[in-house]
Write a structure and sequence with these properties.
Structural class: alpha+beta
Oligomer: single chain
CATH topology of the largest domain: Transferase(Phosphotransferase), domain 1
CATH superfamily of the largest domain: Transferase(Phosphotransferase) domain 1
Helix content: 25-40%
Strand content: 15-25%
CATH class of the largest domain: Mainly Alpha
Number of strands: 23
Number of domains: 3
Radius of gyration: 27 Å
Number of helices: 13
Distance between the termini: 78 Å
Largest sheet: 6 strands, antiparallel
């Protein structure tokens, strides 16, 4: 192979160094002498260039990736054949693979790992939108460029879902360290299979190792089919429950429990990244770059110093100093956490705020996919009106089911008198249920769960009196039954409970 160095393909591409090799092809850094720029050349190995099936796969890779234009996908520039050997010309990415970074650093910073997962998921989303499944998502196929950005490469076994393809005979392709259960069994492979593999990549970024090892590739593949992943929080205690839940759902063996789409996974990863930034109060590296790309609704949950430029921080500080100097005291409908009294409601009667644990809020979706942005629930009780829990998006503008909700576990319980709701999406209809103990019911109404309030239109800052008839309760459930006019979701910035 070394004799190829210095070779000029089709009087244009000079091979300068071999930078990778595989069973079907080798990759070279080359110089495009026409445009005088570095490129990457994937050159099919001569010994298999005469295999018509392999040749067609190689050509199909060029056609597939040439359809894709995305900042996190290594782009195809050209395709050609020289003396019977086909090659693909790709953009040249100076840097290292994600696998090399993991080997060098071990476990990655949590926010950095989530940021890379978002970039990879966005790249896969672009491919899946074109009905192209990668089929070999692994850190070896993710390049980290000099600016720290991730780019997915090597669609060598990708195929279009619009075609039967050359792998329709059920052959298992891909690296078994990251292979989905259905791919390991030779079943149909879809975009959900790529999301499973990405979940394993995220697991490796967080722990520094793949979840399963075995005597051979088949043994590893069968572990993906039969065994549960080792608990990521045991191996990396600082991983939040929200992030662990994302990994669990991405790597669910049952396709009905796994993320159905790239958009769902990306939304949850974005929420987790915002949560991590809010917890730490800062962000570094690629996480900083990705935070700037988050949707505005998600960016609102970030601390001001994370989502704003320093000039705005200075302005905010000056305003705070001016307010203090002028002796301004802002009073009003404040959210309370911990024990305290409040005389602003109920005609002057004293109410006591109920202290809630940070994990007291639970999403409730008994009639859908059983999850309703579980990773965001803490935002509804964190005392920060800029952070929100949202329902999933219902594109028809209709819940299409009896309801979804957010439940508060206020153990050991009390006689609750009032629930206060702050929302940036007013106008939705809701009911409130209470119960003396758990778990959350499979359906509503349910034995032990009492309807204590109903409101046809929740305002931005809604006080809901609870008619509990003196019943002591542990659970309080805000049951959303109708979306706001013209809206496709409901957001809750704060829930406060009073006794």
């Amino acid at each position: 192979m070394s004799t190829l160095l210095g070779t000029i393909l089709n009087d244009r591409y000079r091979l300068e160094a071999r930078i990778g090799t595989g069973g079907m092809s080798s990759v070279y850094r080359a110089l495009d002498e026409t445009l005088e720029r570095p490129v990457a050349i994937k050159l099919m190995n001569r010994e298999i260039a005469t295999d018509s099936d392999q040749l067609e796969r190689f050509r199909r890779e060029a056609r597939a990736v040439a359809q894709l234009s995305h900042p996190h996908i290594v782009g195809v520039i050209d395709y050609g054949e020289d003396q019977g050997r086909p090659y693909i010309v790709l953009e040249y990415v100076e840097g290292e693979t994600l696998k090399e970074r993991i080997r060098r650093n071990g476990e990655l910073d949590v926010s950095e790992a989530v940021a890379y997962a978002i970039e990879i998921a966005r790249a896969l989303g672009a491919a899946h939108a074109r009905h192209i499944v990668h089929r070999d998502v692994k850190p070896q196929n993710v390049l980290i460029d000099e600016e720290g950005s991730a780019k997915v490469t090597d669609f060598g076994i990708a195929r279009s879902l619009d075609d039967d393809g050359l792998t329709a005979d059920g052959r298992v392709l891909g690296t078994t360290d990251y292979v989905s259960p259905e791919q390991a069994l030779g079943h149909d492979v879809t975009g959900q299979s790529d999301l499973y593999s990405l979940g394993i990549v995220l697991y490796e970024m967080l722990t520094g190792s793949v979840p399963f090892r075995g005597e051979n590739q088949v043994a590893v593949a069968m572990k993906h089919v039969r065994e549960e992943l080792p608990d990521v929080q045991v191996l990396r205690p600082e991983v939040s429950a929200s992030l662990a839940a994302v990994i669990d759902r991405a790597t669910a063996k049952d396709l009905h429990e796994r993320y159905r789409s790239d958009e769902e996974l990306i939304a949850d990863l974005e929420d987790v990244l915002a949560l991590e930034a809010a917890r730490s109060g800062s962000a570094t590296g690629e996480a900083t770059t990705v935070l700037r790309t988050l949707p505005s609704s998600t960016r609102r949950r970030l601390p001001l110093r994370v989502r704003s430029r320093p000039v705005w921080l200075a302005a905010a500080a000056l305003l705070a100093v001016a307010a203090l100097a002028a002796g301004i005291v802002l009073l009003g409908n404040r959210t309370h956490h911990g024990t305290g009294t409040d005389r602003t409601a109920g005609g002057g009667s004293a109410l006591t705020a109920v202290g809630l644990n940070s994990d007291a809020a639970h999403d409730y979706d008994p009639l859908g996919d059983r999850t309703e942005h579980a990773n965001q629930t803490a935002f509804a009780i964190d005392g920060n009106p800029e952070t929100v829990w949202t329902t999933e998006s219902y594109t028809s503008g209709d819940l299409q089911k009896a309801g979804v909700g957010l439940a508060l576990d206020a153990a050991p319980g009390a006689v609750f008198r009032q629930l206060r709701v702050s929302t940036p999406t007013p106008g939705f209809a809701a009911s409130v249920y209470v119960a003396p103990n758990g778990p959350l019911p499979k359906t509503l109404p349910a034995p032990g769960w009492k309807l204590v309030a109903t409101t046809p239109s929740v305002s931005s800052h809604q006080t809901i009196d609870l008619d509990t008839a003196g019943q002591r309760s542990r659970w309080v459930l805000l049951w959303i039954t109708k979306l706001p006019p013209g809206g496709d979701r409901v957001s809750i910035s704060e829930l406060s409970l009073y006794r």
